[in-house]
Design a protein that fits this description.
The complex is a heterotetramer, with 2 copies of chain A and 2 copies of chain B. Chain A is of the alpha+beta class. Chain A has a single domain, classed as Ubiquitin-like (UB roll), CATH 3.10.20.30. A 5-stranded mixed beta sheet of chain A has the order 2-1-5-3-4. In chain A, strand 3 and strand 4 form a beta hairpin. In chain B, strands 1-4-6-2 form a 4-stranded mixed beta sheet, with helices on both faces. Chain B is 38% helix and 34% strand. Classes of the chains: A alpha+beta, B alpha+beta. Chains in contact: A-B, B-C, C-D. Strand 2 of chain B pairs antiparallel with strand 2 of chain C, so a sheet runs across the interface.
Chain lengths: 85, 147, 147, 85
């Protein structure tokens, strides 16, 4: 099933789009594996995902660590640490 | 009364306060975040994660209502383009006892700073930059986990 | 901006918010005390010590401004006859950092409860009684002395 | 020099007036001594000042304990524990 990838803030700017819908390979175990795989899609992706410590993620709208299991999500968002309020 | 709202329109603190007052309890605490007017920022842009933001805020408010037995709680967060002096966020809690209102209000703004998907971009004249997250915000949010 | 006011007229929270917002800093915390509508009280009368009250409130505000480096602080307390749902007190603080605003706001309402000369008389139907001071208020005020 | 005595809440009600201006004797050392002396003025005073643990005082608008030195004040207020806010 296709998964909605969402990008925000400078991750969105580096990739050049706010999101994309992709069929994921079956061997991605963690969120970090997904990021590794996405990083190969373009120079923009590689640049956006270069510094892992500066990335945060939400799987189906729940904040998770990058080492969390990916499961079979509908929606994964990748973004910098948040700065609201 | 539980109120969670993410909006482009300016925040009206009087209307938000009146909604909390209608709960009929004795104590109301609020926190209002304002775009600082004192550090050269000309505009501030707030990006957020539609759907994900509301879900995160509802989760935080639900936790606060359960933990402190609140009669009412509200988070209203503005997004889009703002100027110095504008309100960015209104957090309000109402409870029978003032300690519950004051603590839960601090809890909500501390947790919002680390757990709700908003991103700020500041413009100073011709230069724009994304605001970096602060270590002190993580520390402030973490203190609510022990107690 | 320092604002200390004891008055018979209703409190206007929007005007009080606006005065704090004008300080230009990033964080505003407020506490609003409301006459409870849920325990049978029909009217509430507030007596105070003219002159002594203002002096006590100014002392508290001065301590908070010095301790937390506030940009603005306000205590507006109503006296005279009130009804359920009416605002009794507005406490507001403004600071560059939210922790300073939130903590100093809690400090001011905690200290006001034990150190400012106000006395409440509640009427329930035909019966009037002076409200007794609560032990928990002394405990809340005392916690600010150690830190 | 005459001193303004001020009474509030049920202290005021028991005494039947909000205040009085009196010349104090020279031998009152503490606020508590003043209260002992005032208690002899009328039945209302005696009733108002019967339970010392329920009384608070301010000397020249500064809250003090009942064992505080009285000094040579302009104004002394005697009242129950406060209940504002």
């Amino acid at each position: 099933m296709p998964v909605d990838l969402l990008y925000f803030s400078w991750v969105r700017e580096a990739i050049g789009m706010g999101g994309e819908t992709l069929e994921l390979p079956g061997d991605l175990v963690t969120v970090s594996d997904l990021i590794d795989w996405l990083a190969m899609r373009s120079e923009g992706h590689a640049r956006a995902f270069a510094e892992r410590a500066r990335l945060r993620a939400a799987v189906d709208q729940v904040f998770v660590g990058l080492d969390a299991p990916l499961g079979r999500p509908h929606e994964v968002a990748i973004f910098p640490p948040v700065t609201g309020g | 009364m539980i109120r969670v709202l993410v909006r482009h329109e300016p925040i009206d603190p009087a209307a938000e306060f009146a909604a909390l007052q209608a709960s009929g309890v004795g104590g109301i605490a609020t926190f209002l975040g304002v775009v600082r007017a004192d550090d050269g920022v000309t505009t501030l842009e707030l990006e957020h994660y539609p759907g994900g933001t509301e879900a995160a805020l509802r989760r935080l408010v639900g936790e606060a209502v359960a933990r402190w037995g609140l009669a009412a709680a509200a988070i209203v967060h503005r997004v889009g383009l703002m100027r110095p002096g504008d309100l960015v966020v209104f957090v309000g809690t109402a409870a029978a006892h003032r300690a519950a209102a004051l603590e839960s209000c601090a809890y909500l703004i501390d947790r919002l700073k680390t757990d709700a998907p908003f991103w700020k971009r500041e413009t100073r004249g011709a230069e724009a930059r994304w605001v970096e997250a602060r270590e002190t915000d993580s520390t402030a949010a973490a203190r609510w986990q022990d107690s």
